[in-house]
Design brief:
alpha+beta, five-stranded antiparallel sheet, 35 strands, four-stranded antiparallel sheet
Length: 680
């Protein structure tokens, strides 16, 4: 059970808590009830009060003994007996239920309007009869005096089905393109239908003539209405007594009408721009209960003052108030159907009268929440306390970025980890008392221990703004960050110290400094203008003095200057990074331990040097392209051509002594010409 309070009105959510699966055995359920605190504290008012997937509508029989709910999937109807607090029966249907109604005092006569245009009748034993209407239906109402069913839907006609004669009667022709909802007044049996054009048409069933029309779309637009996404259509309709009527629109407004007037008495806006799903009246306290898919609002029908509100966790499809009580049921986009009990609306129903005693005991002895017995700690707190080894055990329960642990264990470990905590706490309290007493003395500007430069900058800017505000007649200085309690940790906690050597700070600092300079310049200009206005009433379009550049030129120069500073900082960062990498490589080379390398000399080879052996190994591993480039670099070039007699030419370049005169190219080279003829 969950307890909430809105406008000092206690609301008890009796359906809050975990629900046990049906396939669990009784033994497993008992074990879970012993271990899980949420299951222990839940109240299962009616057994299996839920749907497989979604509940679309819910109603209570006139005798108050049965609760019927329609849902999916698969489409079905469930009947709950309040005297037995359990499910009485369940019937599966062929298609989804758009709307249903209880024609008798109990569950013996039911009518269902399906999404495939079928109208299905059920008796006490089950399915009785099925027929079809010409158009897709959206809502219907039953006229008890004539035994007529009025169906409205995607048509301008209102279809009438007489249950006494068992045949369709002449339909009512409306001026609308489509009709969304309908209702019949319980006193004088006036039939009203809400159209998609935002009108309400009223018909007299006795003469089958229209007796009035209300334009609710225009009346819903009040002075406080700021935005209307589309033309409001009628989404809900409900009569109260002989003269009152409530109309809900698709844009989230509820209009209260007196049938003797064409103007609404009151317009209540939900401010969600969502269609009104359901409307109900609470006659004992003169309240209206209106609901859209997000919220249920309970408000006074005379003044419109909000009495209370309920906002479930899932979207709402329908609501139903149990007669003469403070209990209401909701059909949600969720398997569980919610049950709310509001003692301020009325007593609990007779079949659950124990709720009154339960709520009175809860009000007399307020119970602490579950989290009062636990302490939330992060992983860093666990390391400080020396409890990191408890991660994964039953003593810590993981939650978000930390863990919940027993508060008694936390206090015990805290005392052992820091036995002088009380002395430190006492000293802090004494220091706080002394600082509070010093506030009465003359205050001297003192820089904080953390972020001194930022604090000094903010103090200078605050002084400039205060001076400017004092020169104006009605000016007020803006509050400083230093005096705001929300930012005081920034100047007290060392973890918030600004690192001026970081890359982010060095790149943003030129921009911030230029903005600060522009701000100071603007403050000086404003101060000069204020002085000029006090001394002389100068014209607003006064020309600039000669020899002074315009503000646009100054701003362009400032823009260029901060761009150059950002580039300079980027260059310095790149250079520092390069130097740091070089230093790291030198350190790595210095720390590297040289290992001896051994080479194997093959048979028939002459050892020259270690470099020669290493060069040969490199040549063996190198590719053909690399070896050719290496031979060209050494001055040797081999050319072979098998197409012309398999001839081979070898050129060897000789070095020339630079001290002598350079010989000709013919004498500087020595040609070796080898010719070899191949005989096939």
């Amino acid at each position: 059970m969950q307890i909430s309070s809105v406008n000092d009105v206690k609301i008890y959510n009796l359906s809050h808590g975990k629900s046990l699966p049906e396939w669990l055995s009784d033994r497993k359920k008992r074990q879970l009830q012993k271990k899980d605190v949420d299951i222990q504290r839940r109240i299962e008012l009616i057994q299996d009060f839920e749907m497989p997937t979604v509940c679309t509508s819910i109603k209570v029989s006139r005798d108050g003994q049965f609760i019927l709910a329609a849902g999916t999937y698969k489409p079905r109807i469930r009947c709950y007996d309040t005297y037995q607090l359990s499910l009485k029966f369940e019937r599966c249907l062929d298609s989804d239920v758009v709307a249903f109604d209880i024609l008798s005092d109990d569950y013996s006569k039911l009518v269902f309007l399906h999404s495939n245009r079928y109208v299905e009748f059920h008796s006490q034993h089950g399915h009785y009869y099925k027929t079809r209407i010409p158009k897709f239906g959206r809502d219907f109402s039953y006229h008890y005096s004539s035994c007529d069913l009025y169906f409205v839907g995607s048509s301008s006609e209102v279809f009438r089905l007489n249950l006494e004669q068992g045949r369709f009667l002449n339909s009512l022709q409306t001026d609308a393109v489509e009709n969304n909802v309908c209702d019949i007044n319980p006193v004088h049996h006036l039939f009203a239908t809400g159209t998609s054009e935002g009108r309400v048409e009223c018909w007299d069933p006795r003469v089958r003539n229209r007796v009035g029309m209300l334009d609710c779309a225009l009346s819903s637009l009040t002075e406080g209405t700021e935005y209307v996404p589309s033309l409001p259509s009628i989404s809900a309709l409900k009569f109260n007594g002989s003269l009152s009527m409530a109309v809900g629109t698709s844009t989230g407004q509820v209009l209260l009408y007196d049938l003797r007037s064409s103007q609404p008495l009151l317009v209540k806006d939900h401010f969600y721009n969502l269609p009104i799903k359901s409307l109900n009246f609470h006659d004992q306290l003169d309240l209206v209960v209106s609901a859209d898919s997000k919220i249920i609002k309970i408000w006074n029908k005379d003044t419109g003052k909000v009495f209370s509100s309920i906002q479930p966790q899932t979207n709402i499809n329908d609501i139903c108030i149990y007669p003469n009580s403070g209990m209401l049921f909701t059909a949600n986009e969720d398997p569980k159907m919610n049950t709310f009990y509001i003692p301020a609306l009325g007593p609990a129903p007779r079949w659950c009268s124990f709720l009154d005693n339960l709520t009175e005991e809860l009000e007399e002895s307020p119970e602490s929440t579950v989290y009062d017995d636990y302490k939330f700690v992060t992983r860093k707190d666990l390391e400080n306390l020396g409890l990191s080894h408890l991660v994964g055990s039953s003593l810590l329960r993981a939650y978000m970025h930390g863990y919940f642990m027993d508060i008694r264990l936390y206090h015990k470990v805290k005392t052992m980890a820091n036995p002088f905590a009380y002395e430190e706490y006492r000293k802090d309290k004494i220091r706080q008392k002394i600082e509070e007493s010093r506030t009465q003395r003359v205050q001297v500007k003192k820089l904080p221990k953390v972020n001194k430069e930022l604090a000094l900058k903010l103090m200078e800017e605050g002084d400039d703004e205060a001076e400017l505000a004092s020169r104006k007649k009605k000016g007020k200085a803006l509050p400083s960050i230093l005096g705001d309690d929300r930012f005081k940790v920034m100047f007290e906690n060392p973890e918030y110290q600004v690192d001026e050597q970081s890359e982010e700070f060095r790149l943003l600092n030129p921009i911030v400094s230029k903005v600060g300079q522009k701000r100071k310049k603007k403050l000086r200009l404003l101060a000069q203008q204020a002085l000029c206005e006090i001394s002389v009433q100068a014209a607003e379009d006064e020309e600039e003095p000669e020899g002074r550049a315009s503000s646009e030129e100054d701003s362009s120069d400032d823009d260029k200057s901060w761009v150059e500073e950002v580039r300079e900082q980027r260059r310095l960062l790149w250079q520092e990074g390069r130097d740091r990498r070089k230093h790291d490589r030198k350190e790595a080379d210095r720390n590297t331990v040289l290992q001896p390398q051994f080479y194997q000399i093959k048979a028939g080879e002459e050892f020259r040097s270690f470099n020669d052996m290493a060069r040969k190994q490199r040549l063996q591993k190198a590719s053909l392209e690399d070896r050719l480039k290496l031979e060209e670099h050494c001055g040797t070039s081999n050319m072979a051509d098998t197409a012309v007699g398999s001839k081979q030419l070898t050129f060897t370049l000789k070095k020339v002594n630079c001290s002598h005169e350079a010989p000709s190219s013919a004498s500087a080279m020595k040609y070796k010409y080898k010719t070899q003829n191949t005989v096939n």
